[in-house]
Specification:
This protein is of the alpha/beta class. Helix content is 41%, strand content 20%. It has 2 domains: 3-238, P-loop containing nucleotide triphosphate hydrolases (Rossmann fold); 255-416, Nucleoside Triphosphate Pyrophosphohydrolase, CATH 3.90.79.10. Helix 1 (15-30) crosses helix 10, helix 3 runs antiparallel to helix 5 (92-117) and helix 6 (152-163) packs across helix 7 (167-176).
Length: 421
Amino acid sequence: MVVILGITGGIASGKSTFAAQLAHQLSSATGHEKVKSVNADLLGHEAYAVGTACRDRLVERFGVEVETTPGGEIDRRRLGAIVFSPDDPERVALNDLNGIVWPCIRDIAESRIREFSSESSGVEFVVLEAAVMVQAGWTSLVDEIFYISANADLVVRRLMARNSLSREEAMKRTSAQGGFGLDVLEHQAALAKKHGFAAPKEDVLWRASLSVVDNNYQSAEELENECVKGLAADIIGRYASLSAHEVVCAVNEANVVVGKCKRAVMRKYNIPHRATYIIVHDAKGRVYVQKRSAQKDYCPSMLDASPGGVVQADESYEVNAQREMEEEMGIRVAKYPLSFHGTFYYADGRAKCWGGLFSCAIDISPDDLALQEEEVESVQLMSCSEIIASASKFMPDGMFAFRKFLELAPSSVVAKNGSKI
């Protein structure tokens, strides 16, 4: 599955340089044919080319004076004079322009992404650069966003040198975009909400998967050597892990679904998600404890007294628990039904999740379980007392879930045959 990396930032922040360098570093490591670049800003020219509906809508809104010739290309200079006219301080014309062009640019960008996402393309990464990614509401197109920022003095000096501007003119340009650094991002987010380009839920998710890159380097070479090379290696590493591309359910801290994201993104940015925890035990109250595979992206090789899994997008707790039982240990819930004990919230420096807590009684020897090798190394039976005594060997959220089970189900055979928590 292809990974879409969004690059955005303020004027003269160096976002185009960063995007080009990131694509180059990813290509060098994975192969040129596996990395593609899309510059959404340049797609604007394509969006209102002669013969497009977008071009005709611009003429309908702004008049034939924006045409170079009747039925011909759009004169960007004339169009710019209209939308940035001092006689339109509320920027009504500019907002109308954006409302016409931005959806068309998005359509083209999505078409390119679909093309690169086909199995036959062989593409692994797409670097999507867009200065107005947040303001235009394009954040849902990407898996994660890199916001390129630079300090005020450096931005002004870059603008003066690049565009042959006076310091006063450069300051006016930065003022128009909302200032410097993260102020630009917040300004764009506010405009997106004001003009209806982004939904509140989208705002929650892109903020959760945002990396800020401080590009205060004095040269492109310094940026690449001291920043981009390391980032590219990290990106390749996290998407190479087990189940990295699995699309999971993202929630907020009130357990309300805010969207979906790749598992690698959830792990990288510690995005709140949903997961199931299942206490599997026998008639004597002994618990089936998993030793997790060394390939796992979270707590590899640790013990787990409440195995389960991350809830996928559009999947319920119950469906996930049933699927995990069958996939990981070959336990069919038709014969061994699940009992639901409620939900709970867990958070630490590595995981934030709303857990769905289940239990299941079975009569199968650990040796007869059909283990999923890439997920589970082995299974052993342990008593409640043994689990509590060796808690440091268990994954922390699983241990939290196990203690929660003892608290919520004190009359269970597991709790009765165990010791105090």
